[in-house]
Amino acid sequence: MKTWTTLHLLLLCTLIGSLVPTAHAAEGKRPNILFIIADDQSPFDFKFYNPKSKLQTPVIDQLAADGMVFDAAYHMGSWSGAVCTPSRHMVMSGRSVWHIPSKARRKTNPNEAKSDLVPPDLANFTMAAVFNRAGYDTMRTCKTGNSYAAANKQFTIVHEAMKRGGTPQTGSAWHGKRVLEYLDEREKNNDTDPFLIYFGFSHPHDTRDGTPKLLAKYGATNHADKDSLPAGNPKQPQLPANWLPTHPFENSHLNVRDEVNVSGVWKNRDEDTIRNELGRDYACSENIDNQVGRVLKKLEAMGELDNTYVFYTADHGMAIGRHGLQGKQNLYEHTWRVPLVVKGPGIEPGSRAPGNVYLMDVLATMCDLTGVEAPETNEGISFKPVLEGKQKTIRDVLYGVYSGGQKPGMRSVRQGDWKLVKYDVPNAGVHETQLFNLAENPLELLPEHHEKEVIAVTGYTPKANETNLADKPEYAAKRKELETLLRQEMGRLDDPFKLWDQN
Q1: Which residue ranges make up each domain of the chain?
Q2: How many CB atoms neighbour CB 435 within 10 A?
Q3: What is the pTM of this model?
Q4: What is 29-395's CATH number?
Q5: Sign of the CA dihedral with 321 first, then 323, 326, and 332 last
């Protein structure tokens, strides 16, 4: 007969405990998750990041007031011009940018599929699969394409469609209606299982066909005539202070679709075009806010809102005229950073923290908040301690990559207020380095922003230190320090490239 010792009993209790996600599980009160993700949205569109913004998003603003705002949330980067694709792989899998499936790289390297950098059964350890096994009901609505199809299929209920129009049937209201129908069905069936809802949108990604009412509010038109400029309107959003008529140098992918073929913009960077396009962007974003409001109101009526963690973010930011760029293929803060707001049980209203988080940390955080065990394949770090106010950040150094055009492309590293960006574009003979102090130069202004012609358009006169500091002798030590950090991060994260000046 087996003798049960105290140690055996402790081990048995530990095993049983691992099978019950949280103390709330036995009471049927495990927290729900509502994960909201927009497609192409700069954090600086929102007033809680940019008080000068004209964008009206009262629901998301209230989420920020009721929860925590992250001031340093990033998407890590991309090896594809379709930046959405690796970003959404990282969200779903909790893995870093060079450790996720890459169709493009497999085409050039058949051995990629066999690489130990990407587990062959990774889809079975992605967001919905993990929460399905933990007893959660999972539902997804989002755009089609440029995401992680194998992971998307793991949700029990899936509604996917590209909805970038200006009507309830063709725009963001379609995604909102799918969530409301799901909640109605739960209510009808008295379903008390905890849920994970992935509430995604197809906007404000172009084509930004807003609703007529919201377009009028922001003085914008769905401009479609390539041979003319859109009409100016005082209701349109102001031109960003870091606007430029063109980017100062080839950044490795200036011929990508987003930079040359967006309907209503194309290659134009004039004031009328950019302000009109920002108006379209804002119209689409406010429509998203309306849909989020409908869903939150429903959750409140069901008595579920107080027991739900609500995440609001985007897959990456967007330029729309900033630095003379239009798309998402760059590593400036308006594009590398993402908006991130989290509200829920135990999160202090009106709190704020840098966080130093990546989108790949979302999966680990969701698991931590709900008591669900994170999968072994996960590489993200839970930022639950930040949400609880126990710490301000979860990492010290942040790495960014864009390698979707010419290789190696762009690399970035940030530590504290300091940020380094490097551009290696061999075919164009471009080897550029930028160094910014984000506390003193949050808009990452360049020497070109100091030119009289630019100031005349933006109305903003930069201070002397609002510029690229890379070649200034007094910052040589700081540049060297960040160059070293970048090399270390590239090695640690299995970046397959080296830059021109790296040993």
Answers
A1: 29-395
A2: 22
A3: 0.93
A4: 3.40.720.10
A5: negative
